[in-house]
Amino acid sequence: MAVVLLFLGVLFLIGKRWPWLLVAAAVLGAGMWQATARGWLDGPCSVETNYFCIRVREEEKRGQLVRVLVLDRLVHSYSSLTDPTHLVYGYERGYAAATAYQADQTGGDPSALFIGGGGYTFPRYTEAVFPESVVTVIEIDPWVTEVAHQTLGLPRDTQIATHNEDARVFLERTPDRGYDLVFGDAFNDFSVPYHLTTKEFNDRVHAWLAADGLYIVNVIDGGTGPFLRPYVHTMHQTFAYVYLAPTSESWRELAHNTFVVIGTDAPLDRDALRRIDAEDGTLDLVDYVLADDELIAWLAEVTPVTLTDRFAPVDQLLTAVFRGEAPGD
Description:
- This protein is α/β, with parallel strands linked by helices and 329 residues long.
- The protein has a single domain, classed as Vaccinia Virus protein VP39 (Rossmann fold, 3-Layer(aba) Sandwich), CATH 3.40.50.
- Helix content is 36%, strand content 21%.
- It has 13 helices and 11 strands.
- Strand 1 and strand 2 (53-61) form a beta hairpin.
- The chain is globular and about 85 Å long.
- It starts with a helix and ends in a 6-residue tail after the last helix.
- Residues 278-283 have low confidence and may be disordered.
């Protein structure tokens, strides 16, 4: 592009330039045709939006062919077109256990609010397993929702209600109901919207929860938890009980690991949660939840920091994750 602009600038400086402009147009047209034919102009995105480079591909996962949604550089979801109950990610199976737990606690299909839609994998699961549940999704990018409709199995006549706006804006409204479950799935390892991590935001989530509701968030961080510790500490400022569930037994040694953080005003019944067996025989959510004294000791290893709208250095806290630094590096 720079060479083309420079060439055109030179042409406009010389006299009798129309013949040269025709030559330039012919050369440029031939060059564009050649670039198109060789695929040089093809971008990496299936769809490029105001927020994401969206790509969709197919892979086989856990014995089924699934559609893979990639937002920018991160695989965001795996979706089965034929079986909405097929969950690939371990944290999603943890979500399934928590949803079943809430169904037992409430005696009916639990209502669920999702912060971040992605591939709509777990909203589709919730709708399929709990058809009477009220399911609401807040997804900032309307194209993510459209791609889910077009290629990821989300039917047009779904009962899932979608709001394409920022979650902070949506939750500032006066709540029209109390949700049994609020799922936070808007974070990845490099890009974390800071305004969804603060005490003020947690207070707004709290306002939209039922009295015994669960706020469940997927967080990616390393074993030392430079971001995770402040995040969990901040959750403690809003919720009476906070639980942390690493999805790997060796989480303390890893540079990247997925954690499930749960905030609630009602203590978890660990025995009731343990009775909900994972259908595939893998460890259930309760097997990963840290004991209360273990979590307190882990948080006490560093000076506590509360994330607020005035102080939330999320990017700096995730520097080690960005560099891929394991504990001890």
